[in-house]
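Dear colleagues,

As part of the handover before I leave the project, I'm documenting each prediction I ran so the next person doesn't have to rerun anything. This entry is a single chain, and its sequence is reproduced below.
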Amino acid sequence: MEIERAEAISEVAQTLINSAKVELQFLEMTAGQTSESEFLGPQKSNPLLPAARKPNSDARSSNHERRTTSHR
């Protein structure tokens, strides 16, 4: 039963991904004519992205331990 459920979830996820791809193609093809999609909502003209995080050189020397989990 778990395999069937995982396959169903995967199929729904793939459908959502494919729908988003089509919506993006629609927005690209109709550039200037429309800036809104019913699926994706209004398109921001200049979306702001968060600033990139700089790598911490002492990440390994901090008090945080890295933990691994084994799954069966």
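The CA atoms of residues 27 and 35 lie 7 Å apart. The first helix runs from residue 2 to 29.

All the best with the project,
I.
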